[in-house]
Every structure is written in C-alpha cells, then in structure tokens.
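Page 42, continued from yesterday. The earlier attempt failed because a stray header line got pasted into the input along with the sequence. Redoing it now with the clean sequence only.
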Amino acid sequence: MFNEKRLPLLIFILPIAALILILFMFLYIYTVQQKRIMNDNLAYIEQSYKQHIIKTQKIKIDSELDILVYNCKNVETTLKPQLKRMVDTAYDIITNIYENNKDLPKKKLFKL
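This time it went through. Structure tokens are written below.
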C-alpha cells in the first residue's frame, strides 16, 4: 500500500493539498463573516431608512397641521366679523318688523 517510490510525490503533494484545504477553509470562514457583516449592515440601513421616513413624515404632518391651524384662524378672523354683521342685520330687520307691527298677533308676526 505504501510504496517508497511514491513517498517523494506524497511529500510534495501533501503540503500543497493541506495549503489548498486551509485556503478553502479560510475563504469559507471569510465569506460567512462577510455575509454576516453585510446582513448586519443591511439591517442597520433598513432601520435607519425607516427612522428617516418616520421623521420626514412627521415633519410633513406637523407642517400640514400648522397650515391647517393657520387657515382655521384666518377663516375665523375673516368670517367672524361678517357673521356678526349678518346677525346684526337680521336682528335689525326682525326688530324693525316687530316695531312696525306691534299690534298684530304673535302668529302673524312669526309668519312675517
């Protein structure tokens, strides 16, 4: 089984085979480690991106809320005096109808 003629060939091939085996093991371990690092980086990037999107959307929502509040206040300050004038005008009209028709019964006054 063990031939002395093959001994120099085995002495020559065995270290090369061991070196190739060690190289493949090193490459496998390196690849697994790089894959783990890449997955960790991917998870970090995804989390960072989600946080960025949440922050951006929060800023947009806050700015839209500010615009809505501004518009509500603007409408209130614009329409409140107009509504007051309309109510005052209606009150004056009703008061005028009542003053001119005091002698009429209440049912006829309500119909006017």
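Notes: The chain has a mean pLDDT of 88.
Reminder to self: strip header lines before submitting.
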